[in-house]
Amino acid sequence: MPSAFVDHLVKPLALSHPPSPTIPSTPPAYALNSPDSATKEQLQFLLAGLNEPLSASLVQDTVGSLTQLERRPGISTLGADPENIALKEAIVSKLLIGLYAEGIDGCLSQAADAETEAEWWADIERSRLSVVWYLLQMDPVFSITKLPIELTRQECHFKRKELEKIRDQRAEALGYLAGMRGELTQAIKAPESFQSFVNSIAYIVQGDIQKAFPPVDIHAGPSQEPLQEILHLSTAVFSKQRATHKHLLDSRQLLRPSRLTLIWPKLLLLPPLFIFALRSAYSSRATLRELASDAKATAEGFIRGWLLDPLKDVLKTVRAGGEGSIIIQKEAIAANLASLERMSLSLAKDHLNYTPEQLVSLSSQVKVGDLTPVLQVYEEDIKRPLKSAITGTLLRSVFIQVQKAKVDIDQTLAGIDKLLKSQELTFAFVGVAPAFGVLYLLGGSLVTLWGGGKEGQYGGKGKISGVWSAMRRTERLLISQPRAHRHNRGKEEDEQHASSISPLTAGLLLISVARLRTYAETHLPLRSRLREGFLEDVGDLANPDLGRTDKMRVVERMWRCWGEPLGWGQIASDNVSVR
């Protein structure tokens, strides 16, 4: 069953295959009330069944049913009725497109599996600790006498190289198949090229590229029945190739060891460690209870003293709406000002003999801070300080100035109080901000721990690192793809070759593009600009109609548009293994 990536790659072919022969609007006379109407219905049923993903059993059942219809005695309209001809050609076309997709999917999945295994061996080879752990998993006795670390590393290196060779072989076949879209359309239009196309697919899938494109005169003989060719390709060629590929990996022991082999040291060590931990916890139960009690008290104190109480203060501040005072009360300011007014009026009445009108005017002056009459009395008194001190006027003037200074200080504090009140809500939030910061860090740690410590935004660093590696390899393949010698080539041929992509490079590109599409469909948010734009660029990379130069521009656009949102700039500096 082809994967979603292959369906996306081949879907345009299924939607744009050549139209069926024109069916007359008025059926011929012999077709009216014909017993072959049941045949037409069966053909339509077979055609509708091919809308499902193609499988070997579906191909076999469809070919068998269609063969029985052709061989049914007493029925002649299958070869004479234009509508039956159109239905049969549509069925054959869908079968051929489905098998073409199955061949691409087989090569793609085998190449991707080989690459995944090669990456696993590369991760083991890259770390000395991983090599020692792998050696312990495979042979614990041998690893404790001699520790042949370098020999084990060479084994990992050899298996990685062999898997990369297999990957390149399947990738080259994948590149050839992907480049045969034009031949597929020609095989659907021209029955004489049908067998040549099917044979080419068979040879490519089996790895015999030289026989896949023979000279034209080799197929000059009569062609076999298309249905039998399709059945042979599905049941014999594809099945045999899958078995051969599996046997190749198993016989050379290139696959990673079984899961039981990889985890047996953990299964052996974890139970004793668990029992030891339980015994240690039981023997230290008093200390653990004390630690739990301290942790509970600390948590309660933090929540109550640093979170709930500051939040209550914030709510009180919001509810009060800036009313009240922080440093000094308004009543105290008014009392001191009234006292200064009475002292000034008393001095003016006793020593300056002010009339009631003058006292009212002086009262207004004192309220705005103007003590000119009092200061004039003081200026006269300091000319005769001893006499003024004895009569008492000098002391009264001094005390009035002291009261004036007290009033000025109160008014200054009132201004500061007003400023503080305007920022009271800010101070309240500043007080509770550290608690929120601690809760944010603790909550993020718990979420990461609950999710296994691997998942994060857009799949986490591991998945993003794999995408970064696929993007880098895509650009590297487009830059350093294999090129033929340039002698005996003109300028036009040279430019055309520079823009073309070799089958091996095309296959390796499709492996990377399949990884990019799988990542986008799995980890990027649905119905987002990031996902839709990323998938559009991935579709451009998979488009065989675009040359090397055009795809280089697509890669540059992807680095420019998605590098910052996906955090590719930090991947190279992070020590994250690619999976």
Automatic annotation (TrEMBL):
GO CC annotation terms, alphabetical: mitochondrial outer membrane
Cellular compartments annotated: Mitochondrion membrane
InterPro entries associated with the record: NCA2-like
Pfam families on file: NCA2
Keywords: Membrane, Mitochondrion, Transmembrane, Transmembrane helix
Chief site of localization: mitochondrion
Protein's membrane topology: Multi-pass membrane protein
Presence of keyword Transferase: no
The UniProt record lists the keyword Transmembrane: yes
Domain of life: Eukaryota
PANTHER family: NUCLEAR CONTROL OF ATPASE PROTEIN 2
Annotated protein name in UniProt: NCA2-domain-containing protein
